[in-house]
Amino acid sequence: MSFFRSLNDSSDDWAMDYLNNGILPSNRNFMGIGALNNSDVLTAVSIVAGDVARFPILQIKDSDDSIADENTVTYLLNKKSNDYSSAYSWKFAMMVNAILTGNSYTRIIRDPTTYGKNAGKAIELEFFPPSQVAINYRDRPGVKREYYYTFYPEDDRSPFDLEPEDVIHFKFFSSDGIVGRSPLLSLVDEMNLQKSGVDTLGRFFKSGLKGSILKVNGAKLSKEARRKIRADFEYAQEGDSNGPIITDSTMEYQPLEVDTSVLNLINSNNWSASQIAKAMRIPAYKLAINSPNQSVNQLAAGYISNDLPFYFKPIVSEFEMKLLTDKERHNYHFDFDTRKQTARPVTELVALVENSILTPNEVRAELGKKADDKTSEMNEYQSTLNTVSLNLKDEYQKSNKVQPKGGDVNGAKNNTNQSGSQK
């Protein structure tokens, strides 16, 4: 199917195509906000969105990997995105919508005092829910097909169009590079299974008298008679649901026995939760599933180093394309600052300094601290007096004669004195 539809498209099936392919959220497919009714999905989305939102974003110089001073762009990305939203809240909302619906959108408001293509620096980031944004296309003679975004604000503003360079668009899985696909589309069976298990437990505990057999002795009952006896029996037992059940000699009450192993299986089945964790790229232990043979520290380090980059890289690539000029893209790049969580142990870093592998300032950078430029030695490789190069050792030995030991000197003096006295 085509991902591009004209706003005046009158075909009957295009909306259903969008629903079936996950472009438009559908509660029947456990898409959109409705998916948060599942506690495992809520937990997984909260973990990913919270982790992406909490890490600062740095602008780094390509030539020497130095961190640029805070500017308007990094201020928007790390502190205050607009007049009513902090940077954390903005990134969290963008992540939640990108996961639940496959796409999330932000309008870039640029400085109107500068001119030229993409010349205006971003001064504000305005978030729009996916329901208020549509992707359309235009065909121009002699020009390749172009796409653009149409925004439908819920306030008093009229709909407006924006070019791709003025829209930050989060999408973590896309088959065409334009429209994203939610990972929840791959979890429909798992979430259905989990919901069925919960519903089964709910029906069991809410069944009450329906989970029993009432025998009427010595009678063959018609359908109408059975229905009347059941209604009369339930009416007679109304009131205290925990009270005794009263029957006469013509009736025999027998509660149904349920295989508890089936209930235990439903209650303890964590397969669907592990599938949700896998699709969302988070460690299973975060959804209360034991992970054998690995400690929590190892799992957390692997999560930050191997799983979160699946989200980090598309985000920083989008920022570089939309928030930097072409000249800046040749000299700078964005990256998430995870050093405080992924830095090597201090003892290991000290050993690297003592063996002249890292300078003290490089160690400070790895620990997420600013460089100390006041002390020149902080940018030089360090060494101890016990560790010198072989060349320096040879030069030292050549320039300094080997002195005899103290005992040898005293012995030589005694021999001289004795030979003098004998003469």
UniProtKB/TrEMBL annotation:
Domain of life: Bacteria
Region (Disordered): 389-423
Pfam families: Phage_portal
Compositionally biased intervals (Polar residues): 412-423
Protein name: Phage portal protein
Organism field: Companilactobacillus halodurans
